Design the sequence.
């Protein structure tokens, strides 16, 4: 094992394909259902929303899917991303564990999300689409898609959850700088938005509402498609470039992770770092423990129900089987804006269900404490979402200190926190609180689940 801190791959070792975990599942994930008929949907049902190339990826069972040359050329600007050994953090924690992190904050938008936004913009452009509509909460996804649309000459319309539209003016400015149109959701531009406003004129919005608005816009206009930054199979697929690189970097480090930890909102960065390793585990090549860390304030995997649910509030999307808190769930205003989706990626949910991964939740204060400990040791201020992974890593490293075990721990540092300094200010000023979601409210949101099968 070397003393190296930074494992960099030459750009000509950028992976040539994404890894599709569907090829290695011992049993397939439950099918996506049409909300009207309750029958599995086919590619044609999705055609109004997505270009055919992405739909085919959504249902593919081929193990390797080639990354198009034009997409690889853009990836090359910041990929392969570095893998770091966190030696200073190890020292602070006085742990025998070896802690590694893959750093996705070096992309132009500051997170892992451009790995999929660039691919999605590319396939839409190929099919002659003119405009993409999407939603964003914290603004990470909106800015990543806005950047990709600018690169491919596509128009971009972003429905931004109203509360963040007001609280995150710099993210909005970033999207507009890339040429996107940003609309506070709920808006009067769509029937879904108008219906919410009629009932709740002061609605501060939610991810589910913003998705309804973006889907509606795409469904009604032939030149516009919809784009989603997490949850769907093709999004998780594009993110696997992270784990594919990490496999090569661990070869270089002459090491292999015993534990992989990722934060989960919709599940895409977690899938990105872990799926290539889980694939090796399922193929019997090498074992690894994989842990998803979610906020205690939005505990879809640890307290939700594994059931068919809609992806949005207005129930315009197909039904997917997922660990869900119910599509009417409106999360409390915690600061990990990117981890506030009511459901989970169906593939991640399925892996939890079949015992290939574990899930845990952490409270907000512990995540910021962990993030600051990391920042002081390693210099990088993590995005508040990524702090959840850091908190999980610190817990694991401290367990190693107790037991004396020298495990290799890998986590994904999904983004930097430079646009989230308000959250850090609030934490430092003692304004943040922990929030345990009341059982009664979860039960109420779950009572509204659609009845299927
Ligand atoms: C959006 C985002 C997340 C959460 O989304 P996933 O799909 O679960 O990865 C996590 N970290 C950062 C930095 C994000 O921007």
Sequence:
């Amino acid at each position: 094992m070397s003393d190296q801190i930074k494992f960099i791959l030459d750009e000509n070792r950028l992976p040539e394909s994404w890894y599709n975990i569907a090829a290695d599942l011992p049993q397939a994930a439950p099918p996506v259902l049409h909300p009207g008929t309750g029958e599995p949907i086919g590619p044609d049902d999705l055609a109004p929303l997505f270009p055919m190339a992405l739909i085919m990826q959504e249902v593919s069972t081929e193990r390797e899917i080639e990354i198009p040359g034009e997409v690889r050329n853009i990836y090359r600007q910041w990929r392969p991303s570095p893998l770091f050994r966190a030696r200073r953090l190890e020292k602070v924690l006085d742990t025998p564990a070896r802690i590694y992190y893959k750093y996705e904050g070096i992309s132009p938008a500051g997170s892992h999300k451009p790995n999929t936004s660039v691919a999605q913009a590319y396939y839409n452009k190929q099919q002659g689409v003119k405009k993409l509509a999407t939603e964003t909460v914290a603004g990470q996804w909106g800015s990543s898609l806005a950047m990709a649309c600018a690169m491919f000459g596509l128009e971009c319309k972003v429905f931004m959850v109203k509360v963040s539209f007001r609280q995150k003016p710099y993210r909005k400015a970033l999207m507009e700088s890339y040429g996107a149109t940003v609309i506070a959701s709920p808006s009067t531009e769509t029937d879904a938005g108008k219906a919410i406003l009629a009932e709740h004129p002061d609605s501060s919005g939610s991810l589910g509402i913003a998705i309804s608005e973006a889907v509606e816009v795409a469904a009604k206009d032939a030149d516009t498609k919809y784009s989603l930054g997490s949850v769907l199979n093709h999004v998780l697929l594009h993110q696997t470039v992270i784990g594919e690189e990490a496999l090569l970097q661990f070869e270089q480090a002459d090491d292999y992770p015993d534990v992989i930890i990722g934060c989960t909102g919709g599940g895409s960065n977690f899938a990105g770092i872990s799926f290539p390793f889980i694939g090796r585990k399922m193929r019997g090549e090498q074992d690894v423990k994989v842990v998803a860390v979610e906020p205690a304030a939005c505990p879809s995997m640890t307290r939700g129900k594994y059931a068919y649910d809609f992806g949005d509030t207005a129930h315009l999307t197909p039904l997917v089987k997922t660990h869900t808190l119910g599509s009417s769930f409106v999360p409390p205003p915690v600061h990990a804006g990117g981890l506030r989706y009511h459901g989970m990626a169906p593939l991640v949910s399925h892996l939890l269900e079949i015992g290939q991964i574990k899930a845990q939740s952490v409270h907000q204060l512990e995540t910021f404490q962990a993030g600051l400990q990391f920042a002081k040791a390693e210099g990088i201020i993590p995005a508040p979402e990524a702090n959840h992974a850091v908190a999980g890593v610190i817990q694991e490293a401290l367990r190693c200190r107790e037991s004396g075990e020298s495990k290799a721990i890998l986590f994904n540092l999904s983004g930097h926190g430079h646009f989230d300094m308000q959250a850090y200010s609030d934490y430092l000023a003692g304004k943040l609180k922990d929030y345990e979601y009341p059982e009664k409210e979860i039960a109420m949101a779950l009572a509204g689940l659609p009845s299927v099968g």
